[in-house]
Design goal:
CATH class of the largest domain: Alpha Beta
CATH architecture of the largest domain: 3-Layer(bba) Sandwich
Family: Belongs to the FAD-dependent oxidoreductase 2 family. FRD/SDH subfamily.
CATH topology of the largest domain: FAD/NAD(P)-binding domain
Distance between the termini: 55 Å
GO molecular function: succinate dehydrogenase (quinone) activity
Helix content: 25-40%
Subcellular location: Membrane
EC number: 1.3.5.1
Strand content: 15-25%
Radius of gyration: 23 Å
Largest sheet: 7 strands, mixed
Shape: globular
Bound molecules: flavin-adenine dinucleotide
Number of strands: 22
Organism: Haloterrigena salina JCM 13891
């Protein structure tokens, strides 16, 4: 068994930042990651990092834009912390050597982004995430932080008291991709999940194949609630054939969207009379699909994004990467023709419920980055606001796990006296595991009380049995079949436009996937680099996560941010200024709600009509 003070699961922007912070606070910290750090999905981030750096801008404007962008579902203490800390944390990256793009006078450049009232997005060409990862990984190497890469974390080693708020997390169980061994990692002070997004729950996504919601699912099964999972961001400019992202930086630099009739529809059809292409992402994604649905799409599928008028020099200086992506994945030369784009799943606003210090309701269990929900993005994330979240809240989680006092959090977690119980919504099927054989792997599943070491050892044994069970089966269903069915259902029915009937259909299909998973088998008999086995385990996680997204989408009968419902096309502030929480209770999802916090340090953010 390996042992450290703090174990960080994941080596993307959030995980690296958390590990550096824990190390600076004097902790023996280790990173466990299924990918080598610089292969993490943060490397795909293109557009930039929002931080109020310039004269004329300030953190209060950033906080206001973020609250408005969130459609008033962001929690003000988290939003204000993000906006206040982003400038210093961004400049720290610069001091560590991040090669930000610069103006003639040497200041770092900032560009306009959707929903921002000031050009606040700091960038390094159109490869911001790539440079961010390399800059922070250098700091990890410099500090001698131990990295276990190509170790796949399967479960958390959590105690199993009845109430999740009474449980504690003592480590993780991981599968060594190179050798096939399953081992325990004991964490004396804390486990920080920084496992990224769950984009692979959808068929058309900008996310990498590694984005399988593992952290979400592990925390969920250990009793930490998932928050606001219904809020999925669909980015307006993904390439139709692959889902590869064309950065918002293109529109930030002046790129224009046209329909098949050559109309600049964001203005000409009145979707966003002030901001046009730079309206918030949810607004632009709905506008594009409305154009397609009303017959003004190109090839009945997409619209055009044109950047030719920006000129070759500016494009090569600021958007060169975009030219390569359009050419390589769509065969289009962005210097001489417009690029085809359509909405694609891009980001999960929801995630593991945490407070401002990154803590979940399970003692010793933290989460940061896209897998967490603190909540700064509420119903809709503004472009450029995820990367500052990684560095601001990754740092806070690392420091707190290492024992630093960051003050009493204002955001509460877990089941408590401030939550509203139960939902009236009729569910089409029994969600969760209830009634099924769950021996292929659940946590929080009873068992004898033990000390920390004993808890980790017991979880290791369960995980070894689980791997053996999957490997020993000779036939059954392959994970790829189940995963594709799940992804199709989510893309068909829990997409930009949602109907009650569609979401219910998705829930029925997810239930079928769960039942089929009872007979899943691993075809590859090898113990080394067995991606078949790893993806089989990931598929189980995707089923759990997809179900929470669909359940959230069904119970929230209003239209807010990225969540649009055909039968409920208005925002219902009287009823729905609250977060949806779903927690796993003995194999059954419990749904409850916690009020959103609109009171900031000096002002209350009054919900207003959101127009751009
Ligand atoms: C194409 C694209 C472009 C984007 N551009 C921007 C942008 O310009 N600005 C912005 O603000 N946001 C952007 N975003 C969003 C932002 O990049 C992501 O939300 C963010 O990078 C996620 O970082 P993370 O550290 O949370 O996760 P990731 O970078 O995805 O890292 C997750 C880590 O967890 C590890 N991991 C996962 N599961 C396991 C497991 N079971 N066991 C062990 N390790 C595991 C992985 O190996 C990886 O190291 C973009 C997103 C996409 C998809």
């Amino acid at each position: 068994m390996y042992e450290h003070d703090v174990i960080v699961v994941g080596a993307g922007g959030a995980g690296l930042r958390a590990a550096i912070a824990a190390h600076e606070a004097g902790s023996d910290v280790a990173i466990v990651s299924k990918l080598h750090p610089v292969r993490s999905h943060t490397g795909a981030a293109e557009g930039g990092i929002n931080a109020a750096l310039q004269e004329g801008d300030d953190w209060e404007l950033h906080a206001y834009d973020t609250m408005k962008g969130s459609d008033y579902l962001g929690d003000a203490p988290a939003v204000e912390t993000l906006a206040q800390d982003a400038p210093e944390d961004t400049m720290r990256l610069e001091h560590w050597g991040m090669p930000f793009s610069r103006e003639e006078d040497g200041r770092v450049s900032q560009r306009p982004f959707g929903g921002l009232s000031y050009p606040r997005t700091t960038y390094a060409g159109a490869e911001t995430g790539h440079h961010l990862l390399h800059t922070m990984y250098e700091q990890v190497v410099k500090r001698g932080i131990q990295v276990y890469d190509e170790w796949y974390v399967m479960e958390l080693a959590t105690s199993d008291e009845d109430e999740p708020n009474d449980r504690s997390c003592h480590g993780v169980v991981a599968y060594d991709v190179q050798s096939g061994n399953v081992e325990g990692f004991k964490a004396n002070d804390g486990v920080i999940l920084a496992t990224g997004g769950p984009g692979q729950a959808f068929d058309h996504t900008t996310n990498a194949v590694s984005c399988t919601g593992d952290g979400h699912a592990m925390a969920y099964r250990a009793g930490a609630p998932l928050e606001d999972m219904e809020f999925i961001q669909f980015h307006p400019t993904s390439l139709p054939s692959t889902g590869v992202l064309i950065s918002e930086g293109v529109r930030g630099e002046g790129g224009i969207l046209y329909n098949s009739e050559g109309e600049r529809f964001m203005f000409e059809h009145g979707y966003a009379n002030n901001s046009g292409e730079l309206a918030s992402r949810d607004v632009v994604a709905r506008a594009e699909l409305t154009e397609v649905n009303e017959g003004r799409g190109v090839d009945d599928e997409y619209v055009h994004l044109d950047m030719r008028h920006l000129g070759e020099e500016r494009i090569l200086d600021r958007l060169e990467n975009i030219l390569h992506l359009a050419e390589d994945f769509e065969g289009v030369d962005g210097l001489v023709e417009p690029m085809p784009v359509k909405p694609g799943q891009h980001y999960a606003m929801g995630g593991i419920e945490v407070d401002e210090n990154g803590q979940t309701c399970v003692d010793g269990l933290y989460a940061a980055g896209e897998c967490a929900c603190v909540s700064v993005h509420g119903g809709n994330r503004l472009g450029g606001n995820a990367l500052p979240e990684l560095i601001v809240f990754g740092k806070r989680a690392g420091r707190h796990a290492a024992g630093e006092d960051l003050g009493e959090p204002q955001i509460r977690t877990g089941y408590g006296d401030d939550v509203e119980d139960e939902t009236e919504t009729e569910l089409p099927v029994q969600p969760g595991d209830a009634g099924l054989d769950t021996s292929s792997g659940v946590a929080a599943d009873g068992g004898v009380a033990a000390d920390a070491q004993g808890i980790v050892e017991r979880k290791v044994e369960q995980a070894r049995t689980r791997v053996d069970t999957l490997m020993d089966r000779d036939d059954g269903v392959q994970h790829a079949e189940i995963r594709q069915k799940l992804q199709n259902a989510m893309t068909d029915y829990v997409n930009v436009f949602r109907t009650e009937e569609g979401v219910k259909k998705a829930l029925r299909i997810i239930r079928e996937c769960r039942e089929e998973y009872q007979n899943v088998y691993v075809d590859d008999p090898s113990r080394t680099f067995n991606t078949d086995l790893q993806q089989t385990i990931e598929t189980r996680n995707l089923i759990d996560v997809a179900e929470t997204i669909a359940l959230g989408a069904l119970v929230r009968d209003e239209f807010r941010g990225a969540h649009w419902r055909k039968e409920h096309q208005e925002r219902k502030d009287d009823e729905w200024l609250k977060h949806t929480l779903i927690s796993w209770n003995d194999g059954q999802p419990d749904i409850f709600y916690r009020p959103v916090i609109l009171e900031g340090q000096d002002k209350t953010y009054e919900p207003k009509e959101r127009s751009y």
